[in-house]
Fold each of these.
Amino acid sequence: MLPPVDHPWFGEGQPPIVLTAGRLVEQKDYPTLLRAFAGLRGQRPAHLVILGEGKLLPELKALAAALNIAEEVNFAGFDPNPYRYMARCSVFVLSSAWEGFSNVVAEALACGAQVVSTDCNSGPAEILENGSYGQLVPVGDNAALANAIAKALDHPLPKDSLRQRGRSFTARTAAEQYLEAVGIHLS
């Protein structure tokens, strides 16, 4: 059982929560996410929670204020247990301009979160099986990102299916697949 999230936005009857997690750096392209969230807020109530720390925090807070969404955005800082947020969010978003494997997408899936991600190099398309387990949008396209978030909110995928996909990326599964690839069968 995951510990609760001590934040009023995660209570009963609250608007949907859009969540992201990562360092507040250029690679994560949070300006695109903030602009997308502003577009989403033009259509419906929602909250955005950003887990992470970094040098861009003042700039991102200023952009949220300029977009008139500061009251709906919570820069929650670093949390050693982001999974408790992932398990309770309405949709998890990765807005990165580039990534490696993107562990956070696999982790969000393992928590049963709906996922929307940029189709950046490399990782998200493979993890989401080209959109089978979450929405993929072009990098830097805030309108497409807003539309994909709305679609994920309106038409969620089954949580059990998402969790099962997330389990494909455990260390044990990866080790078994590696051993199988080199010709060692454990069964």
Amino acid sequence: MEDVFNGEGFNESGEFTPRSDVYFTSDQYVVEVELPGVKKEETNLHIHEGVLTVKGIKRMHDDAENFSYSKRERRYGSFLINFTLPLDVAMENIKAKYDGGVLTIRLPWAGGKKKNEKDIEIN
């Protein structure tokens, strides 16, 4: 139960929710999501109707069922986290980078009407 209060836990679908930070600068909206152990290829970013969705899967070791754990704190399985975007994001200039277990999504301000949908490539 303590994970519900410190930012990481499970949602009603049984998926874990990674820890994240969201902040604004003078020219962009930035989302950072901790995803250590998650492969970039197993992570998907999508924007639909002003909501950024980050989803993917964190897999256990291939032979984990052969282990006898004395302590197990890490979370595995699918994850999904949504972020409501501000109205003025420049959809064509969104950048995403995965480095050191942190996914950083930079959404520059546009100063206009928001578009509805976009897939985002992770570098």
Amino acid sequence: MNKNLLMSYSEYSKIKHETPYFYIIKVPEHIIYYFGSSHSHEPSHQEFGLLKEKWDEFINETKNSKSVVILETSQIPEQETTIEKAIIKYGESGAGAYLAYINNLPLILGEPENSQVIDYLLNDYSKAEVLFWYQCQAIKFWQKNKKGRSIDEFLLNQTGRYRKLLNWSDLVISFDLINEIYCKLFNKKLDINDENIFSELTSPTVIKSRINELSRSQSQFRNEYILGQVEKCWNDGYNIFIIYGAGHAVMQELAIKSLAS
């Protein structure tokens, strides 16, 4: 694989693409199906009909040959009783896991462990900046899935995990702490009700702050990691069905297609 063909975010920010985004890489020995999703937890979303269609094609083409499924996750989803339950709980990774389970195919983690990503980021960013980025992502999830939980209750539940990951012994995560970090970074208060701000803060496609730079850095690290996972499975002779975000699918396309050259 030529990993130098991985698209940069500067290039990516200048293009438009469809979502879902799908492509196939095929040689006589084996095949890759890459399904780039829109990150939905809604079973009725139209992308899941297309995902099932492409999955059935993949199963028919690869019958009686060894295959794997690579998911955008660092932890294998549990097996659910229905694909709808899997999607509600895990999104498209849940759908992929469900389909893999019922077809007895092994699952491969496409994502590095959070500890690996954080160790990488701490080479260039402070613990406060890294924590802020992760909690902005968490707050985006909370905004869509409140389920009666206050923001402080939601954030507090993550304290133990990030104490360990960041080696931050007295850390207590609260919205006040996240707001304090934000005030130091941007010299203004953070509006918890502004859903757009958290997407803007964590976007890797624009560079308006160090947090955008951090987001781009972690995403690039993750892109390179999954390319390594794909290359290993390919070299081991597997057919591969990949389910990842559409942006990653686009950025990785040329590098992955170089496997067939």
